[in-house]
Amino acid sequence: MCTVSHLEYFQDATLFVCFYHLVLSWCYLSAGGNQSQLTEIITIQPDVTSRLIQRQTFVRKACLLKQRPSPSPKEMEYVFHNLIVDDKHHFIYCVVPKTGVTSWKSTLLVLMGKAKSVDQVKHANVRSRYKYLDAYPAGQERQWRLNNYTKIMVHRDPLMRLISGYNEKFSIPDLNRPYHAIHGRRIISLYRPGANSESLQSGTDVKFEEFVKYVLAGHLDAHWVPASTRCQPCYIDYDYYAATETADTDSVSILRAIGAPQSLRLPHSNEHSKPMNITQYFSLLSRQTVERLLKLYEDDFLLFGYDVPDVGSLTAWSD
Q1: Handedness of CA 55, 67, 147, 11 (dihedral sign)
Q2: H helix intervals, 4-88
Q3: Which residue intervals of 266-316 are DSSP H helices?
């Protein structure tokens, strides 16, 4: 079987890109593809390809910088529950909410033939529309796909993702009533002494500092659990790491690599470009609380190359 995973030791990204395209050409044509289809697949920007290669190399090296315990079978089953599999196009996509996931899912539904265009996709987040790795028998069937399919993960600055999760689930009263009922009421009852009956009943006015206390107490919903926990990149060797911040260009290269036609593009997502004033949120938190948040998301910062912010620049007061 043809694979480019053995090229990981190339240190010069430009040389890697040139050699990558030569190998890709040979693999594709030897598998029966025609020249016009090949041209469509490899017409991608070299700088984007270099960036994607460098990210994969960066993650691999970062995994070696910190000794971490191997995930338990239960933790890996959680990861398999998050991995969408397409046996036709031979790819696996790790679902990380608040990274533009609805745009990615809509695009993949079109590629899989389950929708005619991304504009027509409705209910992209309904789980039953996809097959996940945990639906396959444990053992060889899962491992074969992990070894042979193209694996994709999308990440985002962890603090921006945390804020985005809070905004979507708690800052708009009528948008996410299930979250208000399940999480909002509990958060207010736990962290707001003397809360009025209306707040306790509705759960719609959760404050950011209350939400953070809830997160740090171990209540890690899919929308704010560390991305590294959902996808375990130190134990699953992903072929592509897209970033929400550069998704518009990253996605073009990745979609071509899994055989998508040039006409299929990732639709714009608010997550890609929505500006946020991080200090507006974190100035409400104590220094110790911010330090605990940075510790919670330590692996996301380390593995995906995001700069760890200076605590003093985010908050000026202590507990």
Answers
A1: positive
A2: 13-30, 35-42, 46-65, 73-80
A3: 270-273, 278-282, 287-296, 298-304, 311-314
Mean pLDDT of each 10-residue bin along the chain, 319 residues long: 39 46 46 45 66 96 92 97 97 97 95 92 90 96 98 97 94 81 94 93 93 97 97 98 95 95 86 69 92 97 95 71
- Tell me which H or E stretch contains 240: strand 240-243
The type of residue at 265 is R
Where is 187: in which H helix or E strand? helix 185-191
How many C-beta atoms surround the C-beta of residue 266 within 10 A? 23
Query: Is 29 strand, coil or helix?
Result: helix
**How many alpha carbons fall within 13 Å on the CB side of residue 292?**
15
State the amino acid at position 118 in one-letter form.
V
- Cβ 63 vs Cβ 85: under 8 Å: no
Q: 279 vs 123, 239, 309, CA distance in Å?
A: 34, 34, 11
The candidate with the shortest Cα–Cα distance to 92, out of 84, 100, 101, 103, is 84
